[in-house]
Amino acid sequence: MTPTLVRQHLPHSGAAPQVDQWARARDWAEIQERMLVPLHEAVYERLEVGSSTRLLGLGCGSGLALLTAAARGASVTGVQAHAPERLALARERLLPAVRGRRARAGARLTDGEPTDVDDMASAAYNLVTAFEPVGCAADDSEGLTEALAVAGPLVGRGVPVVLTGWGPPERCATSSVLRVAAKLADPLRGTGSWRPARRDDLEEVAQRAGLRPDGSGRVACPFGYADVDNAVRGLLSTGLFDAAVAATDPDQVDKEVREALHPYKRRDGTVWMPNVFRYLIARTA
Prior knowledge:
The protein has a seven-stranded mixed β-sheet with strand order 3-2-1-4-5-9-6, sandwiched between helices. By secondary structure, it is of the alpha/beta class. The two termini are 22 Å apart. It is built from eleven helices and nine strands.
């Protein structure tokens, strides 16, 4: 699974955009990832995450959600495939012998899929999270569905699994900016570019993965940036604009994203976009 706010899919045709993956990972970790902290906190509060929690985080990225859970006393394991740069940043945050800091107790990280976690059976996870929001790009849940299908039997019956997604487009100001990706990616649309979130996106993922829905909620997650440059870096770090870059060029994408951000620029130069995200709590069969 890929580690982005809106999952990263390169087009099947056209040249892949050349990007500095380390710089992008830093932009994600330092700018964009924090936008979902209210979502993480709302889920952890509802499920009473604490010292008795043994959490398996699918698509953990650079580890901020795991760090938040660990700060509440949880033992955390993160799984991330195909994103070594972000996983390296997660290790900086959670594991020992990095800049002389102590490791978070019970923290583990795995480069790969759920089946690659060492000694999975003895871990007895009682919570699975997938904090990469789905429902904003074509086929963005395929990898998640596969990972959930694998993880479900490994964690036992009745374990809560948290799925997250974008809220209704009319309640997500960022949707107007993400439409730039769809417009510029044409005729490659449908291979990773933006599309409006649907009401039942999360329920469809749960059904395909054999999970039983058991509650849901919505959380306000405004995207706030220090300035337009900061906003562009954060949004491009999601990977959703890669198809647009491949279909046009980086300068064109940069220009149009900046124009789309203009209505959300405040007098002090900051950028503020209200958004709503959904979460679904489902349980393993």
